[in-house]
Write a structure and sequence with these properties.
InterPro entries: Beta-ketoacyl_synthase, Ketoacyl_synth_C, Ketoacyl_synth_N, PKS_Beta-ketoAc_synthase_dom, Thiolase-like. By secondary structure, the protein is an alpha/beta fold. 34% of the residues lie in helices and 19% in strands. The protein contains 14 helices and 15 strands. The strands form three sheets. Strands 5-4-6-7-1-8-15-14-9-10-12 form an eleven-stranded mixed sheet, sandwiched between helices. The chain has a two-stranded antiparallel sheet with strand order 2-3. The chain has a two-stranded antiparallel sheet with strand order 11-13. Helix 1 packs across helix 14, helix 4 crosses helix 8 and helix 12 runs parallel beside helix 13. The chain is globular and about 65 Å long.
């Protein structure tokens, strides 16, 4: 008797809430056109901080998307997660589990870097300004980095495996890998992703300790990776959620497979040790390619980590060359995040969303605000590039030393 085929992890739904669009459609339209929405920080209480430029989500009304009883319990980063999850589930044509699937067959996994800073700050101000009786009961849970996983599962009635990944900024990709492994082990559906909301006074003060943070006040010059003018990164809020589903389950219900999570690997090289990240990132790429049974020459586009620090940019460019060989100098590389900011754990999730959409539309989005490349990379700048994209590589590194690589295959790839 022949061995049963392995369960493939397929992406069947995408939901995005980003600085350049509070829906997947507007996000992709802005991304493919290379529109930069980086601007001066306008959030109350942040105006006088040294961090001047960020990617803010401006066209999102949480009260229009989320029930009041959940709004009062949760921080802005969870509002993003719940709304993006709704978009992704709608895209996958999945309703509530009691009508469309057994509730124990659907789980949730998210990643977050800092949790609900704005909610926590507000409640602590109430504590010290007015007294303990003015602190709301949800202070104990709303700030917690696992809040989004819990609230999505409660709100949607999902009772399958639920978890949160804490792995630095690269945790966004690691959450998708965790989801893929859960699907391969037998879970039918995992709602997976990452959202962040670091544009709040307390959160921004905490970020000021990062040497890699850009404090340039010109939005067109504050975040320019892979150039001689690289001066650090600017933060962003928002994120993306994906429906990761067993291919057989998706096919059975007639769902559209948009992409496959084909291979992933993660390494660790230490906080701000950017020269060492060359070896660590290259090793992650090699292992991800091996898991995906993918040759370097099959990679059609690389979505770069693009930190914007000269040493880190050089290490990433060399890591791509080390892992992909001669193909590394020819493969198109892009970093759409230069137009929206680097959203910590959410940054690679928005890259994954863009990569899946790039495969669907045959367009590699450009890298906004970047022109004078000083590394041996075929960086896509100016305007989108038409290309047949069958396989994409998404890279991510964290300020604390995590490295992660994810290989995506186009949904039309032959299942054999």
């Amino acid at each position: 008797m022949s061995e049963p085929l392995p369960r493939r992890a397929a992406v069947t739904g995408i939901g995005v809430i980003a600085p350049n669009g509070a829906s997947t459609e507007t996000f992709w339209k802005s991304t493919r056109e290379g529109i930069s929405v980086l601007d001066r920080v306008t959030r109350e209480g942040c105006e006088d901080l040294p961090l001047r430029v960020a990617g803010q989500v401006r066209d999102f009304d949480p009260s229009a998307a989320i029930e009041e009883r959940f709004l009062v319990q949760t921080d802005r980063f969870t509002h993003f997660a719940m709304a993006a999850a709704d978009f992704a589930l709608d895209d996958a044509q999945l309703g509530r589990p009691e009508t469309d699937a057994a509730p124990f067959s659907v789980g949730v996994v998210t990643a977050a870097g800092s949790g609900g800073g704005e909610f926590g700050q507000r409640e602590l101000q109430q504590l010290w300004g007015k007294g303990s009786r003015f602190v709301g009961p949800y202070q104990s849970i709303a700030w917690f980095y696992a809040a989004s996983t819990g609230q999505i599962s409660i709100r949607r009635g999902f009772k399958g495996p639920c978890s949160v990944v804490a792995a630095d900024e690269a945790g966004g990709l690691d959450a998708l890998a965790h989801a893929a492994r859960a699907v391969r082990r037998g879970t039918d559906v995992i709602v997976a992703g990452a959202t962040e909301a670091p544009i709040a006074p307390y959160s921004m003060v905490c970020q000021l300790g990062y040497e890699e943070l850009s404090t340039v006040d010109d939005p067109t010059r504050a975040y320019r990776p892979f150039t001689s003018a690289a001066c650090g990164f600017v933060p962003a809020e928002g994120g993306a959620m994906l429906v990761v589903e067993a291919e057989a389950t998706a096919r059975e219900r007639g769902a559209r497979v948009q992409a496959y999570l084909a291979g992933h690997a993660a390494t660790f090289t230490g906080a701000s040790r950017w020269e060492d990240s060359r070896e660590g990132l290259a090793q992650a790429v090699r292992q991800a390619l091996e898991e995906a049974d993918c040759a370097p020459e099959e990679i059609d586009v690389v979505f770069a980590d693009a930190l914007g620090v000269p040493e880190a940019d050089r290490a990433e460019a060399l890591a791509i060359a080390d892992a992909l060989g001669a193909h590394g100098a020819r493969v198109p590389v892009t970093a759409p995040k230069t137009g929206i900011g680097r959203g910590y754990c959410a940054a690679p999730l928005m890259d994954v969303a863009a990569a899946v959409l790039a495969m669907e539309h045959g367009l590699i989005p450009p890298t906004p605000n970047v022109f004078d490349i000083c590394h041996d990379l075929d960086l896509v700048t100016g305007r989108a590039r038409t290309a047949e994209v069958r396989t994409a590589l998404v890279l991510s590194r964290g300020l604390m030393g995590s490295n992660s690589a994810l290989v995506l295959r186009h949904g039309a790839t032959d299942a054999s």
